[in-house]
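stage 2 :: seqdesign
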């Protein structure tokens, strides 16, 4: 029996397109759950165990942008690939700004969709980020235990315990390793919409991470500030 590649949530209200995508994903070895409106898509993403969400923007009950923004505000980092009939650059930017990981304009080639899905799942596969059994992530001689909040870094002189907020921010940055993430994305995902700190607060957290984990905090290897945009984590699993 062929091993399943993973589980995908497809939120698409055009039934013929939904059926076509579902069939081809299943033929590729994925398990697929579908729904035709944004409200149920949001609830399924909250409660299900999916490796990726393919999300249409124009949906009944709740549009895809709102679904994506809500998930990110709740700290849900499921990879999201937007499908949209809108091809304008501004719409693409808005989708990515709300926290989507990729954007494909209709009509599209099915092969391209399948390839993008495969690449996103591989990129954000939790097993390549955090050990599912131990909750431990290692990079550059540093060790983070997401289960106990303990870290042992290049400059910590043994184990220290971080705050829940520090751990949440580390997990978010590691999940988006190699990507530049904006300050707004971080604020929404880690702090939530109702309790926004200043961007200087995030800067202080990044400075602390450099103090813990970087061999030379003045020349960071892992935690980078991207001027006028945000931050990027470039560590990889040992």
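stage 2 :: out
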């Amino acid at each position: 029996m062929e091993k399943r590649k993973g589980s995908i949530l497809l939120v698409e209200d055009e039934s013929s397109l939904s059926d076509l995508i579902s069939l081809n994903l299943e033929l590729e070895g994925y398990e697929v759950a579908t729904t035709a409106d944004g409200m149920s898509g949001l609830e399924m993403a909250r409660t299900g165990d999916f490796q990726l969400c393919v999300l249409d923007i124009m949906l009944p009950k709740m549009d895809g942008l709102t679904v994506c923004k809500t998930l990110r505000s709740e700290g849900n980092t499921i990879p999201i690939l937007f499908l949209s009939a809108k091809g304008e650059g501004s719409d693409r930017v808005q989708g990515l700004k709300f926290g989507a990981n990729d954007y494909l304009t209709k009509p599209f080639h099915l092969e391209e969709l399948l390839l993008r899905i495969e690449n996103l799942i591989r990129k954000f596969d939790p097993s390549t980020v955090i050990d599912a059994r131990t909750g431990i992530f290692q990079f550059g001689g540093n060790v983070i235990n997401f289960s106990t909040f303990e870290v042992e870094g290049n400059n910590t002189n043994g184990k220290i315990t971080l705050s829940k907020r520090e751990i949440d921010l580390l997990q978010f940055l590691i999940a988006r390793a190699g990507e530049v993430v904006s300050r707004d994305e971080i604020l929404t995902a880690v702090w939530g919409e109702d309790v926004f700190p200043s961007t200087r607060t995030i800067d202080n957290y990044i400075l602390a991470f450099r103090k813990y984990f970087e061999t030379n905090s003045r020349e960071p290897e892992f935690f980078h500030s991207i001027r006028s945009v945000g931050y990027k984590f470039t560590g990889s699993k040992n």
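stage 3 :: structure notes
- Residues 140 and 238 are 7 Å apart (CA to CA).
- The longest strand covers residues 6-11.
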